[in-house]
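Here is an idea for our session: we take a single protein and study its fold together. To get us started, please write out a protein record for me. Once you have written the record down, we can walk along the chain together.
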Amino acid sequence: MVRLDKPKTEYLVNITQYREFMPDGNDLSGAAAALLRLQDTYRLDTASIASGKIQGTWTTPQLSAHECFELGRVAYNANDHYHTILWMKESLNRYDAEETKNADFSKATILDYLAWAVYQSGHMKEAQKYTNDLLAIDPEHERAMNNKAFFDYHLAKEEGRMRGDDGDIDEEETDEEQGESKQPKKEPKDAAAEDESTDDFVPERPSDQLAERTAYEALCRGDEDTVAKLNNPRKLKCSYQHYGKPQLFLCPAKEEVVFVRPYLIMYREVLSDLEMSIVKGIAAPRLNRATIQNSVTGKLEYADYRISKSAWLKPGEHGVIQKIRNRVSAYTNLDMETAEDLQVVNYGIGGHYEPHFDFARKEEVNAFKDLGTGNRIATALFYMSDVEAGGATVFPMVGARVIPAKGSAAFWFNLHPNGDGNYDTRHAACPVLAGSKWVSNIWIHEQGQEFRRQCDINRNKY
């Protein structure tokens, strides 16, 4: 007869009931990917991250050797050998320094994955060194023995070529005659690879990224040689404006021109703390992972280049929402009847939105087809929180950079007066390095603007 332990049974029942609300493998992968994204964008040192010391933020708890290993494994499973090497090497360093060892993994496991990642990154000699270190710990490690034979053979052969002869290697011997040493065996798919090959070996970040990404990351960091400097800074000015609107006579718009082409305006102190609190309070329970619109099908779908949560608020849901829309109309002189609902977005640590356009390009014939209101003529972006580190809005094509300021709003036209898209408005939300970033936005469409922003064959009239 089995006696049930009631407290334990109740605990297991509760765990089962709430499992869907607990982190799973996807959450782990997402968190790890976010950390790697921050590491690249802000050029953070691996050891500093693991030590919880990130410049511009507070000190956080240190990562253990096993936690560094798990980060490396996420990179390994994504075939990201560069980050695998960085984090496996850090795991190796911390494993040696830790007095209490984690029973779930061993130094041999780290070395196994590390050697494979180093080999895959094109550094066979360093991979051989780590394989030898592994065999010194576990001489019977089958995969390591096979890999060592492969490395020894090819390195000896290469050394013979450099000497101008084949040394002791038989010139007729083929890779097939090496048997299982032909190629190192891959680690199981759920395993991880590693970091740097000798103590001085530092992997190079892959250079196959687009030039735009380099500019985007540099702008996120605020590198001086990337942020644009205007020839005529006098065009950048601050002023009080009422735009001929009676409702703005007593409380004018605080307008700041922050860039000329594209014409980028910041409206300061647009939203009050109470208004922002109400909007966030309505949106918070409805936040879901943000989507993007497929440029071919026009359908909404998830994408790794946009990581955030969003919710849509209709004008009739609360008086504050309608008040915000009226304010945008007064500031911009645009009709809000065909504008989209207010989108509220929250970016957690590592949350970002890579460079994109708000308007639909000519080849995207299905974009906004269901709305029937034309293209997105303009964007109003509200910042509903300060961000402790990171989270800037950047325009890589022109070198413009906007730092979030709670209560302010950025505004720009996505289309030229002749209806063509303004490609200089390509922009991005930089990853949040510390804190949480709240924004909301309204996309304003062409229909209804015929007499408010008149068309003109001169695309640069405004």
